[in-house]
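User: Show me a protein chain along with its predicted structure.
Assistant: Here is one chain, sequence first, then structure tokens.
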Amino acid sequence: MSDTPRRPGDNTQGNRLDPWFDAYAERAHNLRASEIRALFSVVSRPEVVSLAGGMPNLKDLPLPRLADTAHKLILDHGAQALQYGSGQGWEILRDQLVDVMTYDGITGADPDDIVVTTGSQQALDLMAELFIDAGDVVLAESPSYVGALGCFRARQADVVHVDLDEDGLVPESLEHTIRGLKAQGRAVKFLYTIPNFQNPAGVTLSEERRPIIADICLREHVLILEDNPYGLLGFDSDPLPALKSYSPEGVVYLGSVSKMFAPGMRIGWAFAPHAIRDKLILASEAAILSPTMFGQMFLSQYLADYDWYGQVKSFRSMYHERCEAMLGALAEYMPDCSWTTPSGGFYTWVRLPDGLDAKSMLPRAVKAQVAYVSGTAFYYDGRGADHMRLSFCFPSPEEIREGVRRLASVVNAEKDLVEMFGAGFVPLDGHHDGPATPSSSAH
């Protein structure tokens, strides 16, 4: 059998690697492995300090008490907890999520406009399914969340990046980009944005810009998809008002308990204008029938019976300590780099010295027993090789410091090679995909 893809008029049946290659839908060929997921088998080794993944540190959760809660839930309500539920989500939990969103400045929300999803990632996928036809334009920050980009790519969207700086999404760039696309006759389906402690850049959309962004999109008839998994994790304060609070009918707000409680719960939600909510329910029912009842009932008891907000404050303190360890180690070991200074969340965005390529350097870093994510993962168009995302959420402060020290040794070795041979060199033990492309993001 041939190893080449089937083309129109070709009767080839698959190839040696996949006999069903020719049977896939066209959109299936847009599915790609995440650069982060590809690292998991390596970074799970105990000798590797992983500054790559965004896994929350759950060690401070009251696990014995949570085990008792789960035990009691099965004993007292097992027949309901282990049964199918509503496709929209459990009404009692939706009422509680209304209260959770008040911390984001969203008041007066109707629980009937909330759809519970299997993590906010499913809500992203549902929005992509409902709104994106092949070739449609989606706007996203520059850089943007790798999971969202993968979702949009799978739906064959054309993602156009909008400039980001230390104060978040740049309004002038947003307006200029929308009008330029409209002048070309291209429809913009929505703007995808993470306003709080953005993944990967770590920056936060300023309070002054929030109503401006909401007004631009409302005026230009561009829906906003506001993703807020990190909002409660500001080191020193509660979140700024959500974009949803400025434009109730122009924003679909996505929430998640993955960072404020536990990602293994796989519970998120979409708070949407009513007509969009109806379609979200239908699409969710078609995909999963209903979200987990056990997870919803367990989360409901956690929100009702525990000091969940006190636990969030404990997480804030822990992540703040880790962030300080990261920034201090960068200043000591990697002064030739530059980076963002997050006020919450999990990440800092590091720019490498001129001529270095984060993607081609990664194998040497893993060999030195430290891992990060190349900036190329966070762009739709191949940019980002001059940046890396470093995560400070999971390792201890001591591990973070050691990880940055190891990373600095790799960066310094790469700098020496660039100085000796020039940018674009091809290392003996690696590959190179070309010179680094400058990024328009904050650094």
